[in-house]
Amino acid sequence: MAVSRVADSPIGFPPRLPLARLPTPLEPLDRLRARIGGPRVWVKRDDLTDCAVTGNKIRKLEFTLARARAAGCDTLITAGGLQSNHCRATALLGARLGFQVHLILREEGVPNPHPQGNLLLDLLAGASVSRYNKAHYRAHQAELYDEWDAHYRAQGARPWRIPVGASDGTGVWGYIGCAAELHADFAAAGIRPAAIVHATGSGGTQAGLTAGAHLYELGCPVIGMAVCDDAAYFQNKVRADLREWAELYATGVAVDDLAIEVNDRYIGPGYAQATPEVFETIRLLARTQGLVLDPVYSGKAFHGLLEEIRRGTFSSTADVVFIHTGGIFGLLAQADCVAESAK
Fold first, then answer.
1. Residue 138, Cβ neighbours under 10 Å: how many?
2. DSSP string for residues in 111-142
């Protein structure tokens, strides 16, 4: 297990497992700017953290799985939507590290008997999967964790529970580490961005970026583009994760003083439901930059960013950084919608 202090870090990091391919690059989207005008948009390519484990979840799981291993656990229990990027990353990393994995998954509509996207990879990695309709999942999520925890303990296993998205006080460290990379990225590119923008779905990425922007004095707001719940929900969730982080690790950071900015204008019909305009944005990025977004997180968030640019929110001389949190397998699970949007 690697235990390290990030170079020039203002704070000591806890133990982590070096599972991601880091640092990820920061790239300008100059062809997009030539097409639409406005500020220069840069993308932090966290879709490149690994191959099948691609995306933002691996940064959090480096710290979460370090705790699970140190505690002597052998089984991971976590939950999410049927196409959860977090659950897919947990299944694959669990296989890599020798953990048994059990996934508690929420159906989003009529069950499809043919596994696609992230679910296909969950099964390929050997994870045990329990699927529940949305109403039962939402009403009994805590009990489902308890049920499967007791199931594995009765078999003599030692389970470790991971919250949705690995978004808690431990997961916060993942995107504090990303903020350290951004500090170096900005210096190398000679930029001082007007904002850092990303999709927010379980709150953990935003909590880490918010704390990291403060610790590394990035000098710009972190704006979470909500993909499901409203701004009030995310402000409360991010604040709760930050408070748990500050208490659990005695950081000394006054987290209640940190600003938590959430834009909830582009949620659309709901979680994992994208409008035709979002699919048009996905197609635009693929055809101008060869950059693939997904309709659940990154595509919806980037569409919101483009709408804000069109509204004149950012100066045409500004730099804006978008964190690409991955999600390509979720795109493949909505192939029919992708094909329809491309007509």
1. 10
2. PPSS--HHHHHHHHTT-EEEEE-HHHHHHHHH
Do 193 and 303 lie in one domain? The reply is yes
> Residue 150 CB: number of other CB atoms within 10 A?
11
Cα distance between residue 172 and residue 179, in whole Å: 11
Q: Tokens 């932090």 correspond to what residue?
A: 44
316 is catalytic: no
The CATH code of the domain that includes 76 is 3.40.50.1100
Q: Please check whether residues 308 and 321 belong to one and the same domain.
A: yes
Marked catalytic residue, from 4, 9, 84, 128: 84
Contact 33, 41 (CB under 8 A): yes
Q: Reduced to 3 DSSP states, what percent helix, strand and coil does the chain have, rounded to the nearest 5?
A: 45, 15, 40
**Rounded Cα–Cα distance for residues 246 and 280 (Å):** 41
pTM of this prediction?
A: 0.95
pLDDT in tens, 1-52: 444 445 567 889 999 999 999 999 999 999 999 999 999 999 999 999 999 9
- Which of 326, 335, 336 lies closest to 44, judged by CA? 326
